[in-house]
Amino acid sequence: MRPTTIGTSLAMLALAGCGTDGAGQQAAELPEDRTFVSTSVSEGGEPRPLVDGTEVRLTFDGGELRAHAGCNHLFGNVRLQDGRLQVNGLGGTEIGCSPELAEQDEWLSGFLTGEPAVELDDETLVLAGGETTIVLADSGEAEPDRALEETRWLVDTVLDGDVASSVPRDAAAHLTFAAGGEVRGNAGCNSLDARYTATGSRLDVEEITTTNMSCGQHVDRFERTVLDVLAGEPSYEIDGDRLTLTGGERDRRLRLTAE
């Protein structure tokens, strides 16, 4: 599914102006290849509670911003202009969310497109716009990387070039890489077993076997993508509780979250 562009309704949510809590210096440039997770969110000087179990997560990667607040993954082009964050073409996946998570996604989208002021001080990033301030810490400091092995990884996004698609609602793809070299889980419809070897940042997944059910056109297509990536000697990268697998005929990427 092609990402949707955040339209006028979200732009109306943008928070004008900027503020500062004195936590650091106005950023001269954006961070590169770094992920930050929220440590506090406030509005009007008072804490703004997030939905239980969620956080604001921002990744800066070569002129692209990726954001997540508990449901859909948002992404767009980003630059720094006069100390303010400018996000263009903000779009996202279309996972069905609970009303409170959907509202939180819209709130974050509006905040990011509202050109908040940026401060960066060592491992702390502060974004301030209107009455809202979000303080974030470098994920390397805030949350150590999860281990590849013995972690249950849930596939939540598929990226094909610049196009991101969410997992079909009826699919539940998850993988566990056991210490003994076995992979077990589900490819989206069918249960999966395989053998793997991790060498450097690459996985060699062999002897992939699955059950033989059909779960409908969309789920079956998604499952074929998962299997293609796994069979394509994917590279892997772990950032906190996120795992990215890249491989297959078209070098697709699977993004997974530790459960």
Automatic annotation (TrEMBL):
<dbReference type="Pfam" id="PF03724">
    <property type="entry name" value="META"/>
</dbReference>
<dbReference type="InterPro" id="IPR005184">
    <property type="entry name" value="DUF306_Meta_HslJ"/>
</dbReference>
<dbReference type="InterPro" id="IPR053147">
    <property type="entry name" value="Hsp_HslJ-like"/>
</dbReference>
<dbReference type="InterPro" id="IPR038670">
    <property type="entry name" value="HslJ-like_sf"/>
</dbReference>
<feature type="domain" description="DUF306">
    <location>
        <begin position="50"/>
        <end position="132"/>
    </location>
</feature>
<protein>
    <submittedName>
        <fullName>Heat shock protein HslJ</fullName>
    </submittedName>
</protein>
<feature type="domain" description="DUF306">
    <location>
        <begin position="147"/>
        <end position="256"/>
    </location>
</feature>
<keyword id="KW-0346">Stress response</keyword>
